[in-house]
Design brief:
Length: 320
């Protein structure tokens, strides 16, 4: 069963210099009870993708083509009221900065109670459910924690509270937007383990956004690699990390600091810059930075499937 299916999604933003084509023909699935990671450099379109799914694009942004099918409903055709009904109960989000999700002037208990405004439970029952959720995310003395304010918790605890709030209504899809970036290494590992445990308990699907390859490898079942608003490779974590079929994925893995065996003053980088998305190249989007490019790369590229479920948008994929 597929919870979320993205089909040929195109998103553009109106700018003074012309339309900026932020997403082009993005397509992938988020199956039931699976964790799908989205990875890529800054500017690859991860945040635009999230906002398109949630119906929260900026005023100058618009979906120009494709479908976002969630539980059989095409969200590109949903109105504002329908999207509000989905956000929270069926699609929840955990953001990078927990303070962006927590109101500093309201107690944690009141915020968690407010999230349950669609519930028919009374105040005491809502508070009991909130405490139970805080216990699941390993907040000490959860009943007392309900009366405390966000500034009274550490960064790691605030992030766990944000996760508890996102999962309060047991959504079908949780979108986690780089939730471990602001945490130190120890808290990052603990948060990954917590997300995996909660996802298994609740049975939801997770769309996990990150630029951290190690986190993607540790947490996710499947991975989607994006570059300049396009999906260049997708497959299981084992397929993509062990046998990358797109040159961009291979270079991205080579640049991972965790793969450096010795001390160095210069970390590896991918030479060149992102293309101008107001004037996209007609051929392979990565060709200008690719050390394996050839004449055929000037033509539009289609996805190839070198192994079952493993797809890459590169003419070299099947020969790699």
């Amino acid at each position: 069963m597929t919870v979320l299916a993205i089909r040929g999604l195109n998103v553009s933003f109106a700018t003074e210099g012309g339309d900026l084509h932020a997403l082009r023909d993005v397509a992938f699935d988020v199956p039931a009870r699976r964790i799908v990671g989205i990875v890529g450099e800054s500017g690859c379109g991860k945040s635009t993708l999230i906002n398109a799914i949630l119906g929260l694009l900026a005023d100058n942004g618009r979906i120009t083509g494709g479908q976002i099918v969630f539980e059989g409903q095409d969200l590109t055709r949903a109105d504002a009221a329908q999207m509000r009904a989905l956000r929270g109960p069926r699609i929840s989000t955990v953001f990078q900065d927990p303070m962006g999700a927590l109101n500093p002037v309201l107690s944690v208990g009141r915020q968690m109670r407010n999230i349950q405004y669609r519930s028919s439970l009374g105040r005491a029952a809502r508070d009991a459910r909130s405490a139970e959720m805080l216990q699941k995310v390993r907040i000490p003395d959860p009943e007392a924690a309900l009366s405390r304010y966000p500034h009274e918790f550490s960064g790691g605890m605030k992030q766990r509270i944000a996760i508890a709030m996102a999962l309060m209504m047991e959504p079908a899809l949780l979108i986690a937007d780089e939730p471990t970036t602001a945490l130190d290494a120890t808290l990052e590992v603990a948060t990954i383990e917590l997300l995996r445990d909660l996802q298994d308990q609740i049975g939801c699907s997770v769309l996990f956004i990150s630029h951290h390859l190690g986190v993607i490898a540790e947490l996710c079942d499947d991975v989607v690699v994006m570059y300049a608003g396009e999906v260049v490779e997708r497959g299981t974590v084992r397929q993509v990390f062990r046998t990358p079929r797109h040159p961009y994925t291979a270079r991205l893995l080579e640049c991972d600091p965790a793969r450096q065996s010795g001390r160095t003053r210069h970390l590896p980088v991918i030479p060149g810059d992102l293309p101008d998305l107001r004037n996209r190249p007609g051929g392979c989007i990565f060709a200008a930075r690719c050390d394996r490019r050839g004449e055929a790369c000037a033509a539009p590229q289609t996805e190839r499937e070198p192994a079952p479920g493993h797809r890459a948008r590169c003419i070299l994929a099947e020969a790699t």
